[in-house]
Amino acid sequence: MAQLSLSFSAAFLLLMSCPSWSKYEPNWESIDSRPLPEWFDQAKFGIFIHWGVFSVPSYGSEWFWWFWQGQKIANYVQFMKKNYPPGFQYQDFAPMFTAEFFDAKHWTDIFVSSGAKYIVLTTKHHEGYTLWGSKYSWNWNAVDVGPKRDLVGELSTAVREHSDLRVGLYHSLFEWFHPLFREDAANVFNTTFFPNSKTLPELYELVNKYKPEVLWSDGDGNAPDKYWNSTGFLAWLYNESPVRDTVVTNDRWGLNSICKHGGYYTCSDRYNPGHLLKHKWENCMTIDKRSWGYRRDAQLSDFLTIEELIKTLVETVSCGGNLLMNVGPTHDGRIAPIFEERLRQVGQWLKVNGEAIYNTTAWRAQNDSLTPGVWYTWRPQEKTIYAIFLSWPNTGYVVLNEPLPNQGQTQVGLLGYQPLKWEPASPKGVKVFLPQLTVSQMPCSWAWTLRLTGAA
Hints:
alpha/beta; TIM Barrel; Immunoglobulin-like; 7-stranded parallel beta sheet; 13 helices; about 30% helix
């Protein structure tokens, strides 16, 4: 009997060590079956940070290099002719990416004050320059040229000093002008020189060194996921990596994988469908309406107002999404005051209304069918409905058509204030009477939340 037991144990250990017994296999059916870690849906709000050599010219867009030398767009060409000497190359911008004012703890203070629960830093954009001293990006990284610092490491360390804030890292699969990628593209991606020698080693290096809990992939270069070996890498990420239990990934892992595969969907930049999706999704968007990277030529009208940002946050969460709000730091490492102001304003709003955002889920109705500008979330455990109204009505009341009140049981309150009076609306719903408040008495300045308990 003892011999039989030993043989069974040995066989079991042998089988468990076999790669075919890995929990997730390198195919989309298996990869997509992984449950999304709960923390991501509960977080709701994150900060995107687009920072790189493109922050030096800080003109037009973070796609500056491609628009200047790839597409040769006239205003970019003229900008260079006017401001830089003949023969100036994009690589000459790198020593000017100095980051002398970069203070990871100060950045983190801004992010914490915003109410965000995770950050996503561009460790490498399509220009190929890495913000850490990658072994696979010789002389084109922040340790060898420019700041001479590990920017990814500094920010990751500072963020992890706050238990409520998680580290996310963005990484571009392709690079516009890398000779190996261009060779593979010329071979219609039947060769894999670039992913095998550059992209995949960088990804493994990032995960093992910095242990991100969000891995935000981008930039497939019109190459399929098979070329990138995306499912093979994700199988390792979910089975063996140091963040296998907590990491979340998006859907940008190869041509035609967007909005189809991955941990959560982004679908497109600034995606905001306005209705509930069956799959978890994220709205990645920018405070600067025209660019992800910092622009010296930006006008005040190019920046979303705090009212627009709160509206976007509320709509996104009501429809089951997360909001990833982007800022673009300067080449010397500053978050411009207008970005800081917007982020801190969002945090002020969340201090009052965060109960209706964090740890909530989409309700049966996303917005009110009668009153415009009212969006719903709810907490099923507490059976609490939240109705967020974007403008304060001059009638002294707001009518909610979707909640079904129960006389004697339903209670309505204004977050940051106190309980309110209400009566059944006709033909259905709730008519909530709002208090007459001065500006200084208002619980917040931009959008307000009603909490309903005891309603269906």
